[in-house]
Design brief:
The complex is a heterodimer of chains A (about 110) and B (about 120). With about 110 residues, chain A is mainly β. Helices cover about 0% and strands about 50% of the residues of chain A. In chain A, the strands form two sheets. In chain A, strands 2, 4, 5, 6, 9, 10 and 11 form a seven-stranded mixed sheet that branches. The chains are: A mainly beta (about 110), B mainly beta (about 120).
Amino acid sequence: DIQMTQSPSSLSASVGDRVTITCRASQSISNYLNWYQQKPGKAPQLLIYRASTLHTGVPSRFSGSGFGADFTLTITTLQPEDFAVYFCQQSDTYLTFGGGTKVEIK
Amino acid sequence: EVQLVQSGAEVKKAGESLKISCQSSGYSFPTHWIAWVRQTPGKGLEWMGIINPYDSDTRYNPSFQGQVTISADKSISTAYLQWNSLKASDTAMYYCARYGPQYSISSGGWFDPWGQGTLVTVS
């Protein structure tokens, strides 16, 4: 199985901050990496697919990069509605998720 | 608008059977595979299996093979997740999600949209 490791598991940030979340795969997955946002009591929502393509309607302050085994989700100017949990997910072999990164208000 | 609407929360006893549903609207149901995903505080998000509504071809995560059954009825645009004998460890939130792009289960896909979730509690 391909293991997905996210870091950090949580972080505290202020509105306006730049936030970076990393996701590492246990083996190369090309660019088959997706990012989701989950708010309390809600289902995950797709943010970015294939490592760097912004899903329709997602604000441009979100961006993704990476290839192979190392990936990054960046939020350039954190907004109040961005406080949530973020998950990465690989779709190279089977489908596995990272453990999540909780972005909290400082 | 593409939507997946799941059946409501369930409270069951260990050993009972259960079938939860996921009804799709806003697109042609047979064009996208539908997956089921389990979420627990301890293990996070886990992909359970995925079905092609066109011909009911189904693939399971080996961890869930034999534990659940996934099915679909394309005449009513609905996918199902079923247990024959629930265990306390099945207590979780269950989501269905559409796999994209259409007509494909190949590598490189993504889940969008997701159903609102069905909370299953087994005592």
